[in-house]
Every structure is written in structure tokens, then in C-alpha cells.
Amino acid sequence: MKPNATLNNIETPSGLDPAEAGRILTCADAETDFGERIGRISEFFLGRPYVEGSLGGGPDLPEELRVSLEAFDCVTYIETVLALARTQTTDEFVDTVRRIRYKDGRIDWFHRNHYMVDWARNNEECGYVASVTVGPATVEKTCTLDVIAGLPAKTTTFRYFPKQSRAEVAELVETGDLIFFVSTSKTLDVFHTGLLVKHEGNLLLRHATRTADAVIEQNLSEFMSNNKMAGFILLEPLCRR
Question: Could you tell me the pTM of the whole model?
Fold first, then answer.
């Protein structure tokens, strides 16, 4: 398939290798458990480069759907893995990235899920994820989101698990769950994200990180000890019915 050929009325992103997407999808077909499928797919990208601002665009620029399997930031990594896990073909994969990344699937900078609380809420509405961040162990945060030039400031309220409750909520986690790390800033909701893998009693974090300049796997406890945060949000990815 040539770059820019149409897939479901969407141009194939010029940076996407359809053959590579197809190979990953084929290799993951054997996984019948959805969480393990996410784990298998996310492993393909370990060691791939970290890239900042890969989606480009801006409030005064035309928006372009960008999909790459070669380099990631923390958000495009989880979007790519989740979209691949939910689909069987390259066409479906590209279309699912669009729906995950943009409110109502509309490719427009102002419809992009810039803040992760919006990402979570919009993808809950689409049936792609379900919140695990409920119950008496959670606390509430209200902040005025105001760190993205071109977007008006807005106040939002959400719940999260405090950092010190990590050990107590570990039993809620399954391989493939998404974790959002809550900022201590009053103008930001989440400062980083990744996905979780359970392995021999340990919780591992797979994420694209500027610190390592790559997609890496490390102990969740190590990341949390080394980074200042208020706490974290847990989301369960949902398989396609």
C-alpha cells in the first residue's frame, strides 16, 4: 500500500509502514486475553526512540493525523498500543487512533485530547476504557488547566489515588492497564502516562520517556520514587465487543 492511499476515507499517515502494522497485528493474534494482547504489543516497541511534539500542529495550523510505529511520546505510545490491541487490520488501526486521539473522532487541533483528564473521559464515552479510580481510597483534585498555548483556561475536577496508596491498590491492577501520573501543579492534571505489566509479582511500567530518550520498561515503584507527583489514575482498557 502506498503512503497517502485512503483507508476508510482517511489518508494513510505518511510516516506509517502498513507492513509493519500488519506484522505486529499478526504476531498478537495468538493472544486471546485482552490484557496479555496489550502486553505483547507494547513489548514490540521497547527501545524505540522517544520524540517530543510528534503530533505537531497548533491553533492556527491545519491538523494532520500522524501515526508512527518508530518513535513515540508517552501519549502516542499508549494510543498506538491500545489501537493495535483493539483491531485486526491496518485500516481499523488508523481509524481507531483517530477516534482515541480526537473528541468525536474529528481531526482538528481543538478536538485533540490535549489534557489527559479529557482523554480519559472521552475514551470512556467511546467505550475504549473504564475507570478503576473509584472508591474511598481516592481523593479529589480541582485544577485550572492553563499550560497549552491557544486553549482557553478551564477548571476541572477529577479523582485519583494518592501516591502513598500504591501498595494498597496494586491488587486492582491487571496487565495492560493504563496509569496517569497526577501533577502537583494547580494548572496541570497529568504530567506523564504509561501502561502496566504484572510480572512475577512485580508491577512494571512501560512508557516512552524523555529521561531515557526511549520506550523503556522499569519497576513502577522506581518511577514513583524518583518523581514528584500527587498520585495516579488507573484505567482499564476495554476490548472490542
Answer: 0.94
